[in-house]
Structure formats: C-alpha cells, structure tokens
C-alpha cells in the first residue's frame, strides 16, 4: 500500500515538472494556418512532446514555416529541443503510363490522385517502402517505387532536361520491343505520356522510357514535346475544350482518377483543360478558386458560355461553410458534360432530355477560366 502511494506521489511530482505544451500547440496551429492551410499541397506535421525541455517532433517541406515557428517560440521565451525535420525534395519522373498515388503508404489506402508517364515528381520522405511525392500541381500523396524513377543526382536530372522528348498523341497505344507492331509490348501508353527520343525514323522512332527501358513507337503517333506544348497554348477556347471533353465520353468514373483510364469529376476537368494548355489544381474545392466568377440565373442559365466550369455542393449559410463536392463543364443550352458514374452529358433544364434536378438543387457557382 505504501509502495503504491509513493509511486502515485512520484507520478504527480513528475507531471508537475513537465511544462505545459498548450502554448506550443497554439503556435503549431498558428503556423499551419499561415503557411499550410491546405495539407493537400504542403507538409506541416508537427507536434510538441512533453519533456524538460519540450521536444519538437515531425516534419515540413516549407522552410519559411519552420523558420517562423522557431522565431515564434523564441519570442514567447519557450524552451525546446528542435527535432523538427525540414524535408528536401529529390527529383524524379513517373515511369508508368499512369501511376496511382495514394493517401497513405499502403496499397489498400484511398486513391488520392494519379500522374502519367514523364511527369516530374518531387520526392520526399519514405515510409514502409513507399515514398511521399508531389505532382506538378503540388498535390501530395504516397507512391510505391514501381511507379517512378528517381534521378541519382542533379546532374542526371539536368541531362534529362536537355534530352529531346516526345509526347504520345493517340488515346491509347504501346511501346514495342522492336520496330514491328507484332513484337512484344514494352509498356502501354496514354495520350500525353512523355519519353526521350533516341533515334527518329520515318515509320518508327526509337525511344527511352523514364525507367530506362527502350522500345519503338509509331512516328506518326508522337510530336516533339516543345512543339506539342506550344500548340496547346493556341487551344484555349470553348471549341477545343468541348472537343476534348467529348472524346472522353463513356470513360468510367474513378475516385482519384485523373487519366484516360478513369477520372473523377475534377480529374476529368483537369485532364480536359491540360489537353488545351491549362494546368488546373487537383480537386473541385481547389479549382473553384481559379478564374472569374460569373453571375448565374439557375432558371435560364443565361450569362454562361461553353467551357465555363460549374461547381456544385452546399452553399454557405449562417451556420455552415460553403462546400464544393462536384464540378462540370458547361456546354451551352443548359447542358453539362461531367464525370458522374461515367463521362456523360446531362441537362440542367427541366424540359430537356437527361435532366438532372439534383445538380440544379446543388449548384453553387460558375467560373470562367479564359
């Protein structure tokens, strides 16, 4: 009994010696709100571990956030041991026709986004054999090592930048082991995949994939990357937007999908606009912050133009924030094209075929990007 009492008193004394971490926690939250309000595009995973002194543990990829955090603690005259890791990125490339980037480092985790062959990646920390990566639109997630190639050093990355590269143009295709369509496939390909040109030929071009594999593609199916991207800049109009959107009709809905193999609603709009020289943020709740807002009459849909983005979800109210859950491309005459079960066309006007009243009821706002 006496022993238990002594242990209890010792525990109380030990706790009394531990500093209060509430000020540290408040500072962590303040820095998060100032520098990393959206955890989808930046890393701020910090905690204060009680001790004498308090231990700062975790990681961030934002140098200014860590610097400000340390300055804030010093200004409050708080003592600490700084074990906070500042993550630095290595450069890499997606090596598959499309890779699946997940929300956590395991195959059973939710698919958060995708990226396609030749797209650059910033590669951060590793956990359980997976790597945290960041796509060109700054979206973060976890990718297994089979989906990308990591440059050995900056010199190798610079050498790749100088290499002649091509873009694959058809919706689907293959890299062949030999200059023969009956030969063994080396990899499948999707529209927009990027690879290095080794030797151009009249019928076939010898190419190298990001992981070092080599093979042959039909010369008529590719275009030099710079030439292709320059051409995309001339397509920023409704005609080209709707043309590319309709090429994807019937493709399946895939939560987290952003490729021709399957797309969610924002993955669809992102892919369509990318094909026309514009890079959109990943999610509908991010895309809604782009462009110029267009006043909209939901009875006639007057004022909208083909190519505008329409956002759906929940409007802000006295006791609730706005919540965007869906996005579609306006086609004109009250019709939209979007990913909902599959890529399809529906109407926002009651007397038209394929009327979708749930979209009318959940409409929040419209934005014009060009």
How many structurally independent domains? 4
CATH topology category name of the largest domain: endopeptidase fold (from Nostoc punctiforme)
Shape: flat
The tally of beta strands, per DSSP, is: 25
CATH superfamily of the largest domain: endopeptidase domain like (from Nostoc punctiforme)
Arithmetic mean pLDDT: 94
Residues in helices, as a percent range:
10-25%
Report the biggest beta sheet as strand number plus sense, adding barrel if it closes: 6 strands, antiparallel
CATH architecture name of the largest domain: Alpha-Beta Complex
Q: Per DSSP, what share of the residues sits in E-state strands of 2 or more residues?
A: 25-35%
Structure description:
By secondary structure, this protein is an alpha+beta fold. The protein has 4 domains: 16-86, Histidine-containing Protein, Chain: A, CATH 3.30.1340; 90-153, SH3 type barrels, CATH 2.30.30; 162-230, SH3 type barrels; 236-368, endopeptidase domain like (from Nostoc punctiforme) (endopeptidase fold (from Nostoc punctiforme)). Helices cover 24% and strands 35% of the residues. The chain is built from 9 helices and 25 strands. The chain has helices at 2-17, 22-35, 63-75, 154-162, 225-232, 238-247, 265-274, 284-287, 357-362, and strands spanning 44-49, 54-60, 80-86, 90-94, 98-102, 111-116, 120-127, 130-134, 140-143, 148-150, 165-168, 172-176, 185-190, 194-199, 204-208, 214-218, 222-224, 258-259, 262-263, 292-293, 309-314, 323-332, 335-339, 343-347, 363-368. The strands form 7 sheets. It has a 6-stranded antiparallel sheet with strand order 20-25-21-22-23-24. Helix 2 packs antiparallel against helix 3 and helix 6 (238-247) crosses helix 7 (265-274). It is flat. The N and C termini lie far apart (78 Å).
């Amino acid at each position: 009994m006496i022993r238990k009492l002594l242990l209890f008193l010792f525990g109380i004394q030990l706790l009394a010696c531990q500093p209060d971490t509430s000020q540290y926690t408040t500072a962590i939250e303040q820095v998060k709100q100032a520098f990393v309000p959206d955890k989808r595009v930046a890393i701020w995973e910090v905690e204060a571990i009680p001790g004498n002194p308090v231990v700062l543990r975790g990681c961030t990829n934002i140098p200014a956030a860590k610097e400000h955090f340390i300055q804030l603690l010093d200004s409050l005259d708080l003592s600490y041991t700084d074990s906070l890791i500042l993550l630095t990125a290595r450069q890499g490339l997606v090596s598959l026709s499309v890779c699946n980037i997940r929300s956590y480092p395991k195959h059973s985790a939710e698919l958060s986004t995708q990226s396609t062959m030749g797209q650059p990646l910033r590669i951060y920390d590793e956990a359980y054999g997976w790597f945290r990566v960041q796509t060109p639109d700054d979206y973060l997630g976890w990718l297994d090592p089979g989906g990308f190639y990591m440059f050995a050093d900056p010199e190798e990355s610079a050498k790749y930048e100088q290499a002649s590269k091509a873009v694959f143009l058809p919706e689907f295709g293959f890299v062949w082991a030999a200059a023969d369509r009956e030969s063994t496939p080396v990899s499948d390909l999707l529209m927009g995949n990027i690879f290095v040109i080794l030797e151009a030929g009249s019928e076939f071009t010898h190419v190298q994939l990001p992981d070092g594999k080599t093979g042959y593609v039909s010369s008529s199916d590719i275009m030099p990357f710079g030439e292709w991207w320059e051409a995309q800049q001339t397509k920023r109009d409704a005609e080209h937007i709707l043309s590319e959107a309709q090429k994807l009709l019937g493709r399946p809905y895939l939560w987290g999908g952003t490729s021709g193999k399957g797309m969610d609603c924002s993955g669809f709009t992102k892919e369509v606009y990318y094909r026309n020289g514009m890079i959109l943020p990943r999610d509908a709740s991010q895309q809604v912050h782009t462009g110029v807002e267009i006043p909209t009459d939901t009875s006639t849909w007057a004022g909208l133009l083909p190519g505008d983005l329409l956002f759906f979800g929940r409007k802000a109210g006295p006791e609730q924030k706005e919540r965007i859950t869906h996005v579609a491309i306006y086609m004109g005459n009250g019709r939209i094209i979007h990913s909902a079960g599959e890529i399809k066309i529906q109407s926002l006007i009651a007397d038209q075929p394929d009327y979708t009243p749930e979209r009318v009821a959940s409409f929040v706002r419209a934005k014009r990007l060009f």
